[in-house]
Design a protein that fits this description.
Helices cover 7% and strands 41% of the residues. It has helices at residues 3-11, 213-221, and strands spanning 24-25, 30-31, 35-42, 51-57, 63-67, 75-88, 91-103, 117-124, 131-134, 137-142, 148-153, 170-174, 181-185, 201-204, 207-209, 226-227, 236-240. A hairpin with a 2-residue loop joins β6 (75-88) and β7. The two termini are 16 Å apart.
């Protein structure tokens, strides 16, 4: 590590963010092997109509999910019998929640699309640091003629500019960390560095990465430092949170 370079770049970070029109995870990355509160943003309705139902599908490795009722409406859980029961907190479970649904009462549906809604739940996150999970989400609205307009936010992958695909909300899992520098050895290669969007900066050898555009420009302008674009398996990295 280059002490002067690390300090200079880390202190220069200016927080920035952009609003998303997609259904997205509002709470940032989750910590591996922990019970985590996750909140989804649904920023708009469908074709000018208000949202009246949201369904969230959970990864099979998320355990003991408990939803939170909201002003939108009460949450309903849908369980499935497990092929392989699991034991957690001294109890064996043969079924678990796979789908969460929030329905808005008919009398509460608004005349037009004017509100952002949030939907929250808590799950036991698996011990899989640096892994991305998708939360396919179905959004329903009712048109003036009482027909249902459905938006399916279910595409798993990276959408290209102008694509008609609706991306599923994605949740990155990161290892437990403390404020400041953290050292990790990466077991599997990482090609999507957005897992580090919540970090100030990432170093691997003489390569560095930051999701912050100001810091990114300084990385590119720093002598003897290359832009980190992917991380191979078994590499050692330093991450500042």
């Amino acid at each position: 590590m280059k002490k002067l370079t690390l300090t200079t770049l880390a202190l220069s970070i200016i927080s920035s963010g952009t609003a998303s029109a997609h259904v997205s995870v509002a709470t940032g990355a989750a910590t591996a092997n922990s019970s985590q509160l996750i909140t989804l943003n649904v920023p708009h309705g469908c074709e000018g109509f208000d949202t009246n139902m949201v369904e969230v599908n959970l990864p099979t490795s998320f355990k003991l999910t408990r939803p939170i009722d909201s002003t939108f409406g009460k949450a309903v859980t849908h369980k499935e019998v497990l092929d392989e029961p699991f034991e957690l907190y001294g109890k064996t479970y043969t079924e678990d929640v796979r789908t969460l649904t929030w329905n808005k009462a008919a009398e509460d549906v608004l005349e037009s699309d004017t509100h952002l809604y949030q939907f929250s739940f808590r799950s036991k996150i698996p011990n899989t640091p640096f892994k991305k999970y998708y939360l396919p989400t179905i959004q329903n609205c009712t048109a003036d003629d009482e027909s249902t307009i459905k938006s399916e936010w279910t595409f798993k992958g990276k959408t290209e500019h102008g694509s008609s695909e609706k991306p599923a909300p994605a949740l990155w899992v990161v290892p437990a960390h403390t404020p400041g520098w953290n050292e990790y050895t990466i077991e599997e290669s990482i090609s999507d560095l957005s897992v580090f969007d919540s970090a100030y900066i990432v170093w691997s050898g003489n390569q560095a990465y930051s999701s912050n555009p100001v810091t990114l420009k300084q990385i590119e302008a720093t002598d003897d430092v290359e832009l980190l674009q992917s991380i191979p398996a078994n590499a050692t990295i330093w991450v500042k949170y």
